[in-house]
Amino acid sequence: MIIDCHGHYTTAPAAHQTFRDAQLARLVDPDLPEPVPAQISDDEIRQSIEANQLRLARERGTDLTIFSPKASGMGHHVGDPATALAWARACNDLVYRVTTLFPENYAGVCQLPQVAGEPLGDCVAELDRCVTELGFVGCNLNPDPSGGHWTSPALTDEFWFPLYEKMTELDVPAMIHVSTSCNPAAHTLGAHYLNADTTVFMQLLEGDLFGRFPMLRFVIPHGGGAVPYHWGRFHGLAERMGRPPLGGHVMNNVFFDTCVYHRPGIELLTSVIDPGNILFASEMLGAVRGDNPDGGFPWDDTKRYLDKASLPEEDRGKIFELNARRVYPRLDMRLKAAGARAAGGERGFMVKRLYLSKRPDRRADSSCCALAWHAGTTIAPGRSSTARSGRWGSTSPACR
Predict the structure, then answer these.
(1) Pick from 121, 148, 196, 312: most CB atoms within 10 A?
(2) Average pLDDT for residues 34-49, to the nearest whole number?
């Protein structure tokens, strides 16, 4: 299996953005009516996914994407907590619908209703809702909700601890991901994103966050920002500042993705960073779109680069699948459960064939024998099924 740990719903139906525009307009003119989330049909969602992310994932050979709302659209710089909460819930609910329409292809990660300078109570509650009610497997955490002005404390500060406590309780990781830059000196995609990735790594080097939260896990996207390229600088700074070695101090809890859009960058990433700390990702239909003129293939087809990278197959397997399942244990449990159901379904199919082969009078209309299988010990054919494991039977009176 190939798991892409970094996908955003950048192709959401236009009505979703219309709701956001109405929210922002009402902040300017409070006399406007309070907007409600857009009414979007399942067919609209299917079209937005099947014609875009899912089509490309199938063409490129990706099986499942860890999927979250559009990062640049999170808009955490908007200084109204009620608006932030309503927007986050609408975005997360839309991603949830994607995961229910395409359960084999997408797993949800939530947007938090962050507002610069505001406490994290709404973020903790929304994370809990998304994980326990919607089945999400993680969250995106913005270290700079001000949008490029860095007014929030470092991620090692106690300000963030209530969120970390909930993440630890739920056993979910966070991808470090800023939103739109409001600073004209820092381009959103080319500067602000990479600045944040690099800045957070330095914050973690300076602090002792994982001594306090040893089970906390962060994914730093976009190849870890400048960190792999300047690994010697960070290693040297750690020694100069009297910090513990990076391997145990930071890298037991921090992972980088492969949103690096050329092969030399992937080669550097995989040669500097331990393969156990790298998760496959493309951020497909994200920051960098279009084709590389030097190769005639899409910039964000990062699987192509990894396929050709100088890696042992064991390490390639870690990057493509195993690391994601380790960092996102709720995803791993979901995949194991799906595998068990598939195995049970195959066993149930074989039992049904055996039963029908010994009952010629029932073969003419096998559709009447809707056998429900639950993994476990079988009982005699024809008994009604219960919700408990170890039971199977017919749901049709004609088969009783």
Answers:
(1) 196
(2) 98
